[in-house]
Amino acid sequence: MLNGGAVPLIAPDLLAEILVTASDFALILSALDQIVSVFVNPQHRSFGQLRHWEGLHVNDVLAVDSVPKLTKRLEALRETGVSQSVELSHAEQSIWGFPVRYSLHRLGPDNTVLLLGRDLRPIAEMQQKLVAAQLALERDYEAQREIDTRYRVLMEATRDAIVLVSMATGRIVDLNGAAALVLGAARGELMGAAIAQEFEGRRRGEFLESMANLAVIDSAPPVELTARRSGSRVVVVPTVFRAAGEQLLLCRLETPATRAPFQDELGDALGRLFHDGVDAIVFTDPDGLIRCANDSFLNLTSEASAAVVRGKSLADYLARGEVDLRVLLDNARRTGQMRLYATKLNTAYDGQVAVDISATWLKERPNPCMALVIRDAGRADSLRRPGMAGVDEGAGSVMELVGSSTLKDIVAETTEVVEKMCIETAVELTRNNRVAAAEMLGLSRQSLYVKLRKYGLVNKEEE
């Protein structure tokens, strides 16, 4: 048993094991500060073997800034005999280094000193991670502040009355000053209020459901309501979106004053024509991608909804694909419009419908587009009664040949006239693109060139 705090004598091997277990590694310094022994904890393999330190002066394995700190602590230890602690940085031949916290203990009257060290690299790495995380949080905070500022400026600068509503609670999350003016109350008073209560005769569940349904239906007319506080008639245009896992409803409020410039008599009539007209109407971007199409176009192509065709290329529905589309786009851009282009329209179920297409290039607007009116030619032909159509000019010319030429000569001559007219028309429509013209006529390129030479439609420099 140990009495009075006495420590029994410990075998050298056991002492070394205790030292390396109680610390990451230990150094024993002579009175001249030379390293006598090095003990490394076998559980910390990152130190490697430090036996080559033995016999070196301790300053030789320290960083420059750590030398005076250790010297000062050694002097205090040898003068007072009181254990000291110090944080030092080791440098291994200026190649690699590591920080260590040492506790210094005097071993005997010969000024031999024991240094028990704890590796500070895990703590330093953790501190660096914390600093990096703090810097990242500060950057995210600044970015969030910048986005919030932009959002606030945009909300207040826009003339549109905007209200954001939570779909979960039906309450107003945010709104701008224009919306507060339309609803007839201060912005602070409206924040958190139930949106349905701001309109006469509306319940929360019914209002949110109707707004959500209205937001996903492209051709649905806007809803006109009466603001309870201001008594103003308001048209609500909703948009549903999701942010951070929460579903929100953006309501744009339009009053008769704000809608007047856009809802004049002509605009309303054109809108009704688009939705209710018997002819298919399609608007495309400059590349031929469909922006919107009416129900008549959906009926022609047997598509289920406008959402299916939006974003698709018009070439997908044209019988000759890109050839038809290029002809329409190029001629409409060059002359502003193209009348009665005959082709066929592909349906959703591998069918085809003969159609006549009129194209108009709308360039006097921020986003130029092409407007197409598509008429079912097959239905128009079926409505014509026999005998109602007059004798056209071509038929009259053919009839004049009867009596002066044989039937065989008349057929041969008229066939060549029609063939030449078709080739000239195809070359003109494709703007002299021989490949597209051949595909449009169903001919090979070689056959087209032969017929062009036959009818003298090839320039001398092209021969």
TrEMBL record:
Residues 147-199 form the PAS domain. It comes from the Bacteria. GO terms for biological process: regulation of DNA-templated transcription. SUPFAM superfamilies: Homeodomain-like, PYP-like sensor domain (PAS domain). One of its GO terms (molecular function) is sequence-specific DNA binding. Pfam families: HTH_8, PAS, PAS_9. PROSITE patterns: PAS. InterPro entries: Homeodomain-like_sf, HTH_Fis, PAS, PAS-like_dom_sf, PAS_fold, Tscrpt_reg_PpsR-CrtJ. This is Transcriptional regulator PpsR. It comes from Phaeovulum veldkampii DSM 11550. The lineage of its organism: Bacteria, Pseudomonadati, Pseudomonadota, Alphaproteobacteria, Rhodobacterales.
